[in-house]
Target: Putative glucose-6-phosphate 1-epimerase
Amino acid sequence: MSLTSPSTPELVYLQGQPVVQLRAPDGARATVLLQGGQVISWSPAGGSERLYLSERAVFEDGKAVRGGVPVIFPQFEQRGPLPRHGFARTKRWKLLRADTGRDDAIAVLGLTDDEATRSLWPHAFAVELTVAVGGNRLDLELEVEHRGAQGAAPFSFMAALHTYLRVREVEEARLKGLQGVRYQDSTRQGAEAVESSGALAITDEIDRIYFGATRALLLDEPHRALGIEAQQFPDVVVWNPWDRKCAALPDMPPLGFRQMLCVEAALIGEPVVLQPGEQWWGRQSLVAG
Model:
């Protein structure tokens, strides 16, 4: 990114929580919540909102926000001893920098270990989330560093960018690019299968982890589409709670499932192991069409 006149957008407040609002010179916009280090809004230049944020989302310290792009770290779901989906999505992150460049706007947020995290997960770490918005793109990059002293124990982790995509009507959307990929189906007690459809339709509850889904994906809707690309996130989670589970979620409107589909860049099947001083990064890019 070529900086012209770097600026630091001021923090503003939404529902009592600090957010940084990014606006690229071409009008592309994103809103990033410090609680959870979470992107909660993205509109490409000249376009409409492409992320789903529940109108009943709870904005409170220590609670996950329903919608946008929650950061899952260092554990996915209940695949380990930590709280569900780890602790990153319920911690207050720090805004490290925010700049407006010639073509985009960028924010970098950080999270490091503290007494509370070490009581759950006894490791020194730093996580950074870089958010870049401009044109028809939203780029999210997650970096993890083992900050333990030489000789400290290695740690392993899972991660995901739990992206809630806004759709006009979920039954009209088709997700392309997963054909031939092995998946685990949480709605069938973890049964495994291979995706046979070249254009996945959502007509009921879906909760699947696709392993080794390395191709670019396309979320196709009538009159618009969204490209989904990932690097170093080898897995993809596809989730929609459908009517009964949605109605049971206190932070979702009963029919909210019709306007969202989670397509998550994920690292689940083979957790990464870092030695002291080592780093890992993964990226997800959304391209509106």
